User: What shape does this take?
Amino acid sequence: MGRRLSLVLIPVDLSSSPCPWTEDGRHPTLGGFGSCCSLRAPEMLISCCPQPDQDEELPMGYEDPAGEGQQGWEGAPAAAEEEPCTLVLSTPSSILRDRELEELGAQLPPRLTQQPWHLLYSTGRDGFSLRTLYRSGARPDSPALLLVRDTEAQAFGAFSASAIRSSSGFYGTGETFLFSFCPELKVFRWTGRNDFFVKGDVNLLMVGGGSGRFGLWLDGDLHHGGSQPCETFDNETLSHQEEFCIQDLEMWGLA
Assistant: This one.
């Protein structure tokens, strides 16, 4: 004869009754050990809860408040923030101050963090000549930082991901950008509308262009230059006027 199981219904006061299982896992009325779920009936409750010493697995991704080193719902810990680039110059600049260099350094590609920049060309040391600037000795794969100060003391310039050189056409990458301090730093990055990044010959150096307008241009004698809004960077005029006279110019690179 088969074994019969009996279900015992226990009247429970729903408003105040605690769990009927004792600390040792026994039920005071039913006796023995066990566990079940809770089922409410109009006036009766079959109520059992897991034994207090029974281990339960936590849901995947759940954060145990008392645990140490446990992952929460977000999974892996958040990645550390990328350290901004610090612009380290081998010699002081005659155009930008330390605060301005710090602000500009934060705009450079992260791969250039803490790399020393060397003064490859300056009008104060090497004279005013675009030809001399091209012969500055920069590595072909070296990025270039061009700093300009006009006769109205306005500072501005350009960053090129590749060395500034004489060329028959435009070259460069989307990392190229224009900037100005007026007096706060403004950065004008690639819009994606064209790839007129940098082009230079013995008579003219141009950065950014489109529809006959250049974001920045410098003449062969490095005495005059100009800046206009252009499609490449959607920039503002970098100087106070669209045409300016150059007082100082520096080109920095990773020599």
Summary: Residues 166 and 201 are 5 Å apart (CA to CA). Residues 98-105 form the longest helix (8 residues). Helices lie at 98-105, 123-126, 130-134.
